[in-house]
Design goal:
By secondary structure, this protein is mainly α. The protein has one domain. Helices cover 43% and strands 0% of the residues. The chain is built from two helices and no strands. The radius of gyration is 14 Å and the shape is flat.
Length: 63
């Protein structure tokens, strides 16, 4: 019998599964690092910039 449970994705490492990197975190919903990045406008903007650049790089688009 196989499990079809969804594997949460890490919002800070796009394309990678969430492997709780902070003690006590069970996923992105209660991860302190995710909270800090998403609550800070500058960090959130930088994450967005890097996510877009990574997508374009995988597609072969020059940035």
């Amino acid at each position: 019998m196989s499990s079809n449970a969804a594997v949460p994705q890490c919002p800070l490492r796009p394309g990678q599964a969430c492997t709780p990197c902070l003690p006590g975190a069970t996923g992105p919903q209660d991860c302190g690092a995710v909270y800090l990045v998403f609550s800070d406008p500058d960090l959130r903007a930088e994450l967005h910039r890097r996510t877009i650049a990574g997508r374009e790089n995988r597609r072969g688009v020059r940035v």
